[in-house]
Amino acid sequence: MGSEAMLWFLLAHLLVQILKINAKVPAIIVFGDSSVDSGNNNEISTVLKSNFQPYGRDFIDRKPTGRFSNGRIPTDFISEAFRIKPTIPAYLDPTYNISDFSTGVCFASAGTGYDNATSDVLSVIPLWKEMEYYKEYQEKLRGFLGNEKANKVIGEALYLVSIGTNDFLENYYVLPRRSSEYNIEEYQNFLAGIAKDFITELHRLGARNICLSGLPPMGCLPLERATNIFSGGDCVQEYNDVAKKFNEKLQGMITKVNKELGGIRLVFSNPYDILLDIIQNPNKFGFEDIAKACCGTGFFEMGYMCSKINPFTCSDANKYVFWDSFHPTEKTNWIIADHVVRTSLATFL
Predict the structure, then answer these.
(1) How many alpha carbons lie under 13 Å from residue 105 in its C-beta half-sphere?
(2) Cα–Cα distance for residue pair 122/128, rounded to 1 Å
(3) What's the confidence (pLDDT) of residue 194?
(4) What sign results for the dihedral spanned by CA atoms 235, 236, 238, 239?
(5) What is the pLDDT of residue 6?
(6) Which long-range contacts (CB under 8 A, 24 or more apart) does 126-134 make?
(7) Contact 223/326 with Cβ under 8 angstroms?
(8) Contact status, residue 146 vs residue 92, Cβ threshold 8 Å
(9) What φ, ψ does residue 322 adopt, rounded to 5°?
């Protein structure tokens, strides 16, 4: 590991130690897509998996876990910052049990979206099913801790929801069904309505502290740049504009929900600005390559295409913003998590 990379991780460790002083959250509970999936797709029948090398090559014990990165993902770093544990296990992982899940659990599934039609594309877990798993988890938690303690954990836990990119890049802009039914603003409103219903149901089930993540500058993902050949491989501005507009709709929804649902503390986390800052000012963050990913050629590979036998994979992922054509490196994930903890999540510390 180079001196610059070592400095980043020393700073990360220092931040974690500082934040540990005032941590109040007993558990982190995660819903979403590949941005936060810690391995649930390993246990379902889908082609969208990452439980093989070189994924996880910089993870604890160099173990590929099903996380779509070379190491940890943002929710892992957030859990560590809240003095809970360094990683959040996947609910479907048979090597864990309710004792492990009582302090943090992930229901996310790579490739899913708000829209059920999005999860159908690659046969992954739809958002409604993530909710069903959460209800099952509540029953197991009450059996493990007893009703009073379990209800306390449920009410004081921090819920992280990160989802939405696939609805546009895997569904709306690729397949004809939704784009024939809705114009882009109507589809955004449709998704925001699903987001509101999901948050409302979480609240009904006892959740009070919730962080809903917006979309990143999805037009700057290496895969989208690579297909934007007529603009010289620049970011796809249309996709970035859609992400910004959708984020605005989510923020408006959050304002309303905070007024409507008693006792809820719903906050918005915005990965758009911090990731765009990294992409536009890579030297400030110690990166060398922003347009292509570390794995393979850096333009198209993801999942099984990002394999151990690919001869083009980089040797030092810390120089790259993206690990594969769709997902950030561990270093980028830490920067995003650090930003979220110091901004949106500061109210929960």
Answers:
(1) 26
(2) 16
(3) 98
(4) negative
(5) 55
(6) 127/31, 127/163, 127/194, 127/198, 130/31, 131/31, 131/107, 131/198, 131/201, 131/202, 133/91, 133/92, 133/107, 134/29, 134/31, 134/107, 134/202, 134/205
(7) yes
(8) no
(9) -115, 140
Residue with tokens 């990002």: 306
- The DSSP element (H or E) to which 161 belongs, if any, is strand 158-162
Q: What is the pTM of this model?
A: 0.93
CA of residue 30 relative to chain centroid, distance: 9
With tokens 């963050």, the residue in question is: 285
- For residue 16, the model assigns a pLDDT of 53
> Do the Cβ atoms of 329 and 69 come closer than 8 Å?
yes
Residue 224 structure tokens? 């989208």
Give the residues of the chain that fall short of pLDDT 70: 1-23
Do the Cβ atoms of 218 and 240 come closer than 8 Å?
A: yes
Three-state DSSP class for residue 293: coil
Residue found under tokens 């546009």: 168
3-state secondary structure of 267: strand
What is the dihedral angle through the alpha carbons of 236, 308, 54, 311, rounded to the nearest 10 degrees? Answer: -60
Q: Residue written as tokens 């500058």? A: 217
Contacts of 95 (CB under 8 A, 6+ apart): none
Residue holding tokens 């040797």?
315
Residue matched to tokens 């899913």: 112
Q: Which amino acid is at 178?
A: R
Nearest to 164 by CA among 136, 190, 133: 190
Catalytically annotated residues: 34, 324, 327
Which residue carries 């180079």 as its tokens? 2
For 226, the token pair is 């690579």
**For 129-244, where are the E strands, in sequence order?**
158-162, 209-213
Which helix (H) or strand (E) segment holds residue 249: the answer is helix 237-260
Burial track 280-310 (b if 16+ CB lie within 10 A, e otherwise)? eebeebbbeebbbbbbbebbbbbbeebeeee
* Alpha-helix residue ranges (DSSP H) falling in 20-89: 74-81
